[in-house]
Amino acid sequence: MSDLRHPPGRRNRVVAIATALTLGGTALLGAAAAAPAVAAPSGATIDTVDYVADTYGVDDSVIETVTFERFEWLLGQQGRFAFLIGGALDERTEATIATIDAEAKKAGVEQVFVFDPKLDGESLDIRTTTNPDVAPLWPRLVTNALSKDTQTPFDGTDDPYFFVYDVSHTEGGVEDRIVSALTAPVTSAQLAEPAALETYRAEVAAVFATAGELTTSSQFAFTSDAVNAKHLRDYKGADAYGGATILSDEDADWRVQTVTYPELVHLLESDGDFVLLFGGTWCHNTRAVLKHVNEEAVENDVEKVYFFDLRLDGASSNDLHIRDTNSEFADFYGDLVTTYLPNLVTQYVPGVSGQVDFFPGGDRSQPLATAKKLQVPYLLEIERGRVVDGKAAPVVRQWIHDNGDGTYKEYMTEWWYVIDKPGRYESRPDPAGLAAQLAFADEAITALDTFFGAIGEGTTPEPTTPPTTPPATTPPTPGQKPSEVLGSVAVTGDLRPGGKVTVTGSGLAEGTGGFTVEIRSTPQTLGTVSTDADGAFTFSATIPAAIPAGAHTIAVTIDGVTVASTPVTLTAAATANVSSAGLADTGAGFTGPLTWAAISLLVAAAAAITIARVRARSAA
C-alpha cells in the first residue's frame, strides 16, 4: 500500500487514537500518555499546561510557539526577534532547543519564537507539500520576508534554522533582515560529545551577542492588531458597526492564548480542567465576543483560554479549513473531535443539517467517518478522563443556547450588536429586527458570564431559556451561520466560453469572507469573494474557455453549502451579451428567514452533494 495514501505522521496519529478506543468505553481518552497540568494561580479553578516542558523537557523556558498567522505577522513587525524553525518531530529542533533556551536566558533574552512548518506537527509540511492550497504559504514567507538578506537568505539550499530577524535592518543600503543565524545540521549524537556541545553553546551565544538587544511581542499585541485591522478592513470604521477598533490597551491583561494544532492535541491529551475556544481573527462572530471572553477570564482568575483556529493559516476557507468535508485535511478535525470531544453538542445535526465527513487518518482506502460540525466562536470547558453514566464525557460545559427540544443554537452575533449599535439597520431601519439582534447579543454575553461563573464545578448549567422568536420579517435570524443566509446572484456580460462577465451577489451573510463562485454542472471555480457590510459583492471573472456552450449554473457557496444560484446559457456566438439574474436554491423569491425545517432540508441536500464530491475525489 502506497505511503502517499498514508503519510507517516497521520498514520501514527490514527494508530494512537485506535489504541485509545480499544481500551474500553470509560477509558476512551485515558489510553494516551497524559501530560501533567500546571497548577492554576491561587483562587483559580482552571489549569494550564506547559507544552514546551512536556514536549522538549525544558522547564521555565523562554521558548514560545507561534501559529502560521502569528509568525507571518511577526515577520512584518518593527523590532528584532529570535526564531527557531522546527518542531517536535524535527531532529535538529529536539537536539538544540534546550541549549538555545539556556543560552537565551544567559543573554537576558525573554522570548525565542518557534515555528513548526509542519502545521499538524507531523506530515503537512508547508515547505514540501504539493497541495495547491497549502504549497503557496512557504514561498510567500520566503518571498516577502525570509529571502531578504545578504548573507544567509532562505533560498532552499542552506536555510537558517535559528536566527535573529529585523525587518528594518540593512547592510550597505540593501535589505539584510537576518542579523545573525545558524544553518549547519546538528544532531543529538553530535551534541552528546562534551566538546561539541560546548562549541555549539558558543555558536548560539554568538547569535544572541551579534544581534544585541531583542524585542518582545505579546499574544495581546498580535491578537489586538489582527482583530482591529480586520474589523477596520471589513467595516471601514463606521460608527454603526462599532467604530474602528474592538480591542484597546485596557484589554492588555490578555488571557486568550493562540495555540498550534500540536499544542491543541497535547492539551486534549493532558490531565486537568481547561477552557478552550475555537475561532479566528478572520471571523467577525469571534471578534464580536473576544473582548468579553477575555474580560470573563480575568474576572474569574482563568490564566489561559486556549484559542485554536480551524483555518490553519488563520485566513483561508480552502483545504486549510480543516473543519470542512471538502478539505483534504478534514481528518485533522474529524479525528480530533471524535476521539477527544465525543460528547460535545452542536447546532448542526449530523445526518440532518450538516456534519464533517472525513477519512480517518487521511486514509482514503477506509470508509468515510462522520464528526459533529461546530461553528465558531465555540467555547467549552474540558476535562480529560471525565466519565458520566459510564461514558467518556470530557466536555464539561459549553457556551451554547439550548433550544429545550434536543437541538441547540451557537452564539454567533456581531460586535456592533454587543455594544448596542445598529449595523445594517442604520441604513435599512427595521426596529423589530434590530431589537431581536440586540436581544440575542445580550443573551450571548450573559451566557458567557454564566459559563465562566460555573467553570470548575464539574456540572453543566441549566439550559438557557429560549429567546422570543424573532418576527418573520427579520433578515437574517440572529446567530445564523453564513451558509443559512440565502441570497441572490446575477451575471452580466459576454456569456460564452472565454467571455468576460460580472457577477453580483446580494442578500448574503454580511461582512463575510470565503464565498466561492462556481460555474456548473462540473464545478469550476471562477473566484472567491467577500461580502460587504450589506451582504453584497461584485467581481469580474472569465468563463473558462473549455466550458461547452449550453445550459449551466452560476452558484455561490460557503462552507460547502450553495447559498445562491442562477441559470445561465452560454452560446458559442461571439456576439452573445445578455444578462441573467436568479434567486437562491429554493427556486423562488426569498423574502425572509427560512423556517428551521426548510433550512435543515437545504443543508442536508448540500451535505449529500458534498459527500458525493468527496467520494468522487477519493476515487479519482
Give the helix level as a range of percent: 25-40%
Strand order of the largest sheet: 1-3-2-4-7
Strand pairing plus helix content: what structural class? alpha+beta
From the N-terminal CA to the C-terminal CA, the straight-line distance is: 17 Å
Annotation, overall tally of beta strands: 26
What can you tell me about this protein's structure?
The structure is a single chain. It is built from 14 helices and 26 strands. It is of the alpha+beta class and 620 residues long. The two termini are 17 Å apart. The radius of gyration is 25 Å and the shape is globular. Helix 4 (91-106) packs across helix 7 and helix 10 packs parallel to helix 13. 29% of the residues lie in helices and 19% in strands.
